[in-house]
Amino acid sequence: MVIKVTDEYIALLNKAVAREIQVSAQYMLQHTKMEKLLRKVIKENYLLETTTYEEFGKLLKELAIQEMKHLGAIMERIYILGGEATTKPSKITIGNTMKEFAKLDLKAEEEALAMYREIIEAAKAIGDRETWQLFMKIYSDEEEHLLKFQDYNEMESEPDLAETPESEWRSIFNNKEYIALLNKALASEISAIVQYTTQHEKADGLERLRKKKAPLEVATGKNKAGVISGILKKTFLQEMEHMEMISERIYEIDREAVADINPVPEIGNNEDDFIKLDREAENYAIVLYRKVIDEATKLGDIKTKKMFEDIIQQEEEHYWAFDDFLP
């Protein structure tokens, strides 16, 4: 490689990774929290089919997905440069109102733009044209995000939020241990998303760098790294759906989601590591989700029970997909 890549340069790129993990999770959790806020506001106009809250919620989900794409692209570049991508996010803060969301997200975008200007200059200084082009594109996207959040910050007012009165059937959700268990499930999904996304990008790099030697590899143009990369992409997209479902349910029952990543994502060094670690991650999730189903059954929380029964079926499919690759 012609350009000279230093540890300091990789560390700077990893600051961008930490930021992208933060905002993708932050925006998605804010999107799901709209479910809670929507029940607390008077509809602006009953003749309309939507509200400001619903439109802002759609925007947040759209931006969360775009930030996840940024994350993947930056991670991929780090691996091409010979570095290791971090799995630790910058601080995730959700907020309690639409105005708070907009204020927090505007600040996050301002900080990102300042950081990305620094990266663009650093890439230019060492002649890393690919990274320079990547961050020029990302910078343009982040500017658009900032302008959208500015619009919401400049709104004249926001409807007052009322407290949802307690009722007998909702008393089952006063169980703190149960809500903590749901948040533990949410944390495991965020962990899986980060782990599988990172491995997907690392496997992509391995697939490009490794020659295809076996007859079938030559014939199909694929190798083990490439196949596993494809499985990981499909899997982390499903985990994102699970994250959205679980956090939305927590907010739907008028409780608070906790933005945590637990267990700590483990990446590994090669395809065999990925398979072993991901099989363990799926095993952890399946055992945990059985506990959630048991507790939901005891409390009579039928909707959450059914939701986790659907999720656990997909987690078992992930487990067997990884298990198939074991020697």
Write the layout of secondary structure elements.
Blueprint: H1 7-38, H2 52-80, H3 98-126, H4 129-153, H5 176-209, H6 215-220, H7 224-252, H8 271-299, H9 302-323
Protein architecture, described:
The chain has 327 residues and is mainly α. Helix 1 (7-38) packs antiparallel against helix 3. The chain has helices at 7-38, 52-80, 98-126, 129-153, 176-209, 215-220, 224-252, 271-299, 302-323. It is flat. It has two domains: 1-164, Up-down Bundle (Ferritin), CATH 1.20.1260; 167-327, Up-down Bundle (Ferritin). The longest helix is centred in the middle third of the chain and has 34 residues, at 176-209.
Supply Rg.
21 Å
Average of pLDDT: 90
Number of strands: 0
State the CATH architecture of the largest domain.
Answer: Up-down Bundle
Order of helices and strands: HHHHHHHHH
Number of helices: 9
CATH class of the largest domain: Mainly Alpha
Q: Estimate the strand proportion.
A: under 5%
Helical content class: over 70%
